[in-house]
Write a structure and sequence with these properties.
The complex is a heterodimer of chains A (265) and B (474). Chain A is an alpha+beta fold and 265 residues long. Chain A folds into 2 domains: 102 residues, Immunoglobulin-like (Sandwich); 154 residues, Roll (C8orf32 fold). Chain A has 5 helices and 16 strands. In chain A, helix 3 links the parallel strand 8 and strand 9. In chain A, helix 2 crosses helix 4 and helix 3 packs across helix 4. Chain A is globular, with a radius of gyration of 18 Å. Chain A starts with a strand and ends with a strand. Chain B is α+β, with helices and mostly antiparallel strands and 474 residues long. Among the domains of chain B are: 95 residues, 3-Layer(aba) Sandwich (Rossmann fold); 64 residues, Dna Ligase, domain 1 (2-Layer Sandwich). In chain B, 31% of the residues lie in helices and 24% in strands. Chain B contains 15 helices and 23 strands. In chain B, strands 3-23-22-19-18 form a 5-stranded mixed sheet. Chain B starts with 21 loop residues before the first helix and ends with a strand. Classes of the chains: A alpha+beta (265), B alpha+beta (474).
Chain lengths: 265, 474
């Protein structure tokens, strides 16, 4: 499948910005079954300072806001082709060692709610157990836009019983790691049926299974990723893979508008 | 059982004057005690005037305190020093290779010489450094190797300081003071100079600049500010090197570089000698609460636009559990047996070792794996029963947090007291500079001395003092 993606983020400030930086992880990565044909990032009201590939093989761009700006616009767009690999991303490649993905993080720490969920997980193979986990998560945490805070942990989401894809993914990571699978967060794009415009990126989890390598699980949709899923950034949790991490001085009254369009070519 | 007498570096074990002290001793014999007493007071006054002070944690009544200085030098022969230098160079080379390896292919783990969990479960391992090769391949630009001596030929490494070794300003000030007060001693003894250290440091840092082509790389010293216990040293070193002393708010990312605000606009920095811990270095990438760092500096670093000295993530080499593997680490990367010995170390994470340590607590020194500065340690032989009981509880609760070592009979060197000379235990921190051009060990270092009779704790934060350290030209 060939997808065209356009992701625009506009910040508007009532008062001029004194200083600001943003770290972007918005460039899809080429991996097994996914090829980035073309990708550009345009910035208005700021500029690219540096770019590098981080330890999760994410393309990172550091941009600075122009001094005194009241507007910043970042538009990234391009073309990506994806094969349906039934969610299998394949063997681990470095530089990060596989064990890094077995480490719990603050957002994916196991607690009473996670343990309770895990008690019901069964299956006669690794894949069966992970699918059972994914299904149990979508049941335990009802998908509800706006239900959760961006800072929520896996435990927070389970205790609340509602959340978004980010929360599903954090619960998946906490549980998969507890079951002994290295696991990672994936932020990306998803082609939706009959809908081009979206207001947020999607997120899902990947677990490393002996013999198969990395396998994706989208608890929010109850499936493994197919040719409609575009992998952008990966990490131990949201903090590692977030599309934007920012820091700014001044610039009060911030208004943010996100426009994402994903369509088949 | 008869106890072996403690090795005194001046008088040996049997009160026979050791050769390196011969010339010094003949001078001392002609000196009048009253004059020396006056000199000791004068030295203290010089230190007070120079402003060299040290903040002591956990002592509200004295925010700044003078580290006591003792006028009797510690003297090491050139031959002894040469042997030490070979061992230090070997160890520093191995530490740098180890750091490169664990942030890349982890061959040492693949080879089965270091258990993966020593790195995987290590809080000092910095994932952001995975796959990063610093300019020139140098991680540890400045290293302090803490040594103790137990006999004529017996030196042990007590710990490695690859993160941010401090104390070099004391080495320099101690020598300066001795030169001022006893110039005659330096004409009688051929003492190798330490005064080139700031120049060597600057040259070594410049040699590690990201772009080797640039003519005069810009170096700066990053300090957390005046409330840091080592602020004096930061200011002193910047001044001695003739480079800028900066704080986080003086720097920002400009045109893809880290640049310093000046009256003529921003000026890019090539090499930043930072005395700010990893966690506080970059609020965008590490602790977002930090006001001491430079947002985005890690991004510039990873893109190859600046050298950070020492590299982020080097603290793992200081870890006391990693320390216990150091003989293997040296052998793995250099193909040679370690020249400098390690103190035998029990890792309490291992159940058998823990059992041994608990059974023999009153004979052992127990340290926190990530601790430094002598905080949170137990010295078994001098601890009270209550202290032992309480420490045993802490050990059982978090065994992986501790290592234990036998108490060594550290060598002594005389100090000058009101009642004349008296032996006190010492250690030694030589300072090592590393660049693609090679390794440079300053002849001497910082001798720390436990001023209390019989005490083995030399840390300045625990009431230790310092001495000038002489390495003689043979």
């Amino acid at each position: 499948m060939r997808l065209s993606i356009k992701h625009a983020t506009r910040y508007r400030f009532d008062t001029p910005l004194t200083y600001g930086l943003q770290q972007l992880r918005k460039t899809p990565k080429s991996s097994n079954g996914q090829h980035v044909l073309d990708w550009v990032t345009r910035i208005e009201g700021g500029k690219r300072e540096v770019s590098f590939e981080d330890h999760h093989n994410n393309v990172v761009e550091l941009i600075s806001f122009d001094r005194g700006t009241t507007e910043l616009e970042v538009v990234s767009e391009g073309l990506v082709t994806i094969d349906d690999t039934s969610g299998i991303v394949g063997p681990h490649r470095g530089p990060a060692p596989l064990w890094l993905y077995a480490r719990p993080t603050d957002r994916t720490r196991v607690g009473p709610a996670t343990r309770k969920l895990l008690r019901g997980i069964d299956g006669d193979s690794d894949l069966a157990r992970l699918h059972a986990l994914s299904a149990a998560i979508s049941e335990a945490v009802v998908y509800l836009v706006g239900a959760s805070e961006a800072t929520w942990t896996a435990e927070d989401a389970l205790n609340a019983g509602e959340g978004v894809c980010q929360d599903h993914t954090h619960v998946f990571l906490a549980c998969a790691r507890e079951l002994g699978f290295p696991a990672r967060y994936v932020s990306g794009y998803l082609l939706m049926d009959g809908q081009v415009r979206q207001d947020a990126m999607h997120a899902w989890g990947e677990a490393h299974v002996e013999g198969l390598g990395w396998v994706g699980f989208d608890a929010s949709n109850g499936i493994s990723p197919d040719a409609r899923y575009v992998r952008v950034a990966t990490g131990l949790d949201y903090a590692d893979a977030a599309p934007v991490t920012g820091l700014q001085v001044g610039g009060h009254g911030e208004a943010l508008r996100v426009d994402i369009a994903v369509q088949q070519q | 059982m008869t106890e072996t007498p403690i090795f005194d570096e001046m008088w040996g074990r049997d009160q026979t004057l050791r050769q390196p002290y011969a010339s010094f001793n003949s001078w001392l014999e002609t000196e009048d005690t009253a004059r020396l007493r006056a000199k000791q007071r004068e030295a203290e006054e010089l230190f007070r005037l120079s402003g060299i002070t040290f903040n002591v944690y956990g002592r509200a009544e004295a925010e700044e305190r003078l580290i006591p200085f003792d006028i009797i030098p510690r003297i090491i022969s050139g031959r002894e020093w040469q042997r030490l230098t070979r061992g230090i160079e070997q160890r520093v080379r191995a530490i740098n290779a180890f750091l490169h390896d664990i942030y890349h292919r982890q061959e040492i783990v693949r080879a089965g010489r270091l258990p993966a969990e020593m790195i995987a479960r290590n809080e000092a391992f910095l994932p952001q450094m995975i796959g990063v090769t610093p300019p020139g391949g140098i991680y540890t630009h400045i290293v302090g190797i803490d040594l103790v001596r137990t006999g004529d030929d017996e030196f042990f490494v007590l710990e490695d300081n690859a993160r941010t070794p401090s104390g070099v300003s004391y080495m320099l000030e101690n020598r300066e003071t001795m030169l001022q007060m006893f110039p005659e001693l330096f004409s009688r003894n051929r003492v190798q100079p330490v005064q080139n250290y700031p120049r060597d440091l600057c040259t070594s840092l410049m040699a590690c600049a990201p772009d080797m082509q640039r003519a005069n790389p810009a170096v700066a010293v990053l300090t957390p500010g005046i409330y840091n216990s080592a602020y004096f040293e930061h200011a002193f070193l910047a001044d001695q090197m003739g480079v800028e002393l900066v704080e986080g708010h003086d720097l920002r990312v400009v045109d893809g570089r880290v640049a310093m605000r000046t009256t003529e606009g921003y000026k890019a920095i090539d090499v930043l000698y930072r005395r700010v811990d990893d966690d506080f270095l970059d609020p965008l990438n590490f602790n977002p609460e930090s006001a001491l760092g430079v947002p985005g500096i890690m991004d510039v670093y990873r893109a190859g636009g600046i050298t950070i000295a020492n590299a982020p993530g080097t603290g793992i080499a200081d870890d006391k559990a990693i320390y216990s593997y150091m003989p293997d680490i040296v052998e793995f990367y250099t193909g040679e047996k370690a020249i400098l010995k390690n103190v035998p170390t029990w890792r309490c994470s291992d159940p058998d070792s823990l059992a041994y340590v608990l059974d023999n607590l009153s004979d052992l020194v127990v340290k926190e794996v990530h601790g430094s500065g002598g905080y949170g340690m137990l010295i078994g032989p001098t601890a009270t029963k209550k202290e032992l009981r309480e420490f045993a509880k802490k050990l059982k609760a978090r065994p992986g947090n501790y290592i234990a070592q036998p108490t060594l009979s550290l060598s002594t060197v005389p100090i000058f007291t009101n009642k004349g000379l008296a032996p006190r235990h010492v250690d030694l921190r030589p300072f090592v500079l590393m660049s693609p051009g090679g390794i440079n060990v300053t002849p001497g270092g910082l001798t720390r001395v436990a001023l209390k009779k019989g005490s083995l704790v030399v840390n300045s934060s625990q009431g230790g003092g310092t001495k000038d350290t002489w390495v003689l030209e043979d």
